[in-house]
Write the structure tokens for this entry.
Amino acid sequence: MPDALPPPLQIVEVQRAVAEELDRIAPVIDDLGERFRAAGHELALVGGPVRDAMLGRRHNDLDFTTSARPEQTEKLLQGWADAIWDMGRAFGTIGCRKGDWQVEITTYRSEAYDPSSRNPSVDFGDDLAGDLGRRDFTVNAMAVRLPGREVEDPYGGIVDLAHRVLRTPGRPEDSFSDDPLRMMRAARFAAQLGFTVDPSVVAAMTAMAGRIEIISAERVRDELVKLVCAPYPILGLRLLVDTGLAALVLPELPALALERDEHHRHKDVYEHTLTVLEQAIDLEPRLPGGGPDFVARFAALMHDVGKPRTRRFVDDGTVTFHHHDVVGAKMTRKRMKALRFSNDDIDAVGLLVELHLRFHGYGSGEWTDSAVRRYVRDAGDQIERLHVLTRADCTTRNRRKADRLRRTYDELEERIAVLSEEEELASIRPDLDGNQIMEILGIGPGREVGMAYRFLLELRLDGGPLEPEAAKAALLAWWDARRQ
Ligand code: ATP
Ligand code: MG
């Protein structure tokens, strides 16, 4: 997690960065620019790639805007691109691939908005200025005309980019009224770019937060995922909470800001949660993919959401949150379902929230081998993320306590490694399979086979692997006992 926000840039640095990037992508932009010009159309690099070029970030996805209509664009790409696709045709977009480059070319837009509808209706426009004026933020409303490479920056995007601030080209209230999703996008870009959001934009987000409810859950979710996976997610999350947007799209998060009771008997769960997220991000290099890892990050964000509901004040002056893991997992699943996450993501995050406290029963190493096996088996393919979450969940300022917890967890991971090597823990199965069970007991498929299977699995988890003869004897003993 980057510690501090990046410093402001000099305009000359910005200009140098964009010139360098244009040279790098010259093989694509020179060719395309010339093709469109020869056919009498305007073409300009626009939006994300211009902004990112100025920030010294390079990528091979290039967005263009043009005066040509989609069918004209398509003709101009034929014979140049390696592959063309037109799924976005209704919105004016033709996409193509040329070597390693992904290109999207969209016809100038001038949109007529119906304030009650979720999606803007599409109207093609005739000039670049009009197209830039309907974009979300000034840093996204810049273009480079081709083939001449003139920079178009009608709203002062370069200056805003140098100061690392998000502003809207027009009044933010008008912009958010046209498309409330832009409020989520403000938080997302703040998180991705490490930018601050202009106070006028924050004020409009706060005043208009309620309008987000007309946006589909899927579109909100996509912005949330990008925000959470960004380099500065905390910046975006605080903005969502402070403006009241989070209360509508992820209410479990602001609900963590419990009023502290006068004795300060428990930590501020909201601040704790943001610290856990930060620490989980720092631990991502341990994960197979190396990060950013949405599931691990979202689990960190949701791990304590069951606390407000389970808080109890006890007579002896302490506070308890019994079963906040189970309650929190349920709340997490419900929220993710409402946001239309995939079942795989819901199961993964739900499981992590549910298991995040299990390690605390480990004390200073009192778990039996059986308890260690169950830990691994219950976590399944989420075990690495569970390690990250559990380690990240220690936010005590007491260094000795933190060191002790870390060493204890090291020890647990060591035991898991030893047991795994001996037993391939993650794929534990009973010592006999379903066919063997049916053969030994002389029964056909049915409920009893399942019960026998679970009995053998429990036995296996408790005691480790058994020889086939011993497993058979145990199975028959269980079967006899049942029939008495
Ligand atoms: P990335 O693709 O890396 O997430 P990006 O800036 O390309 O970032 P996109 O969501 O792909 O973001 O949008 C491309 C461009 O289209 C933006 O830079 C912006 O100019 C414009 N844009 C996209 N969505 C909106 C919107 N809802 N309102 C106004 N302009 C938008
Ligand atoms: Mg893009």
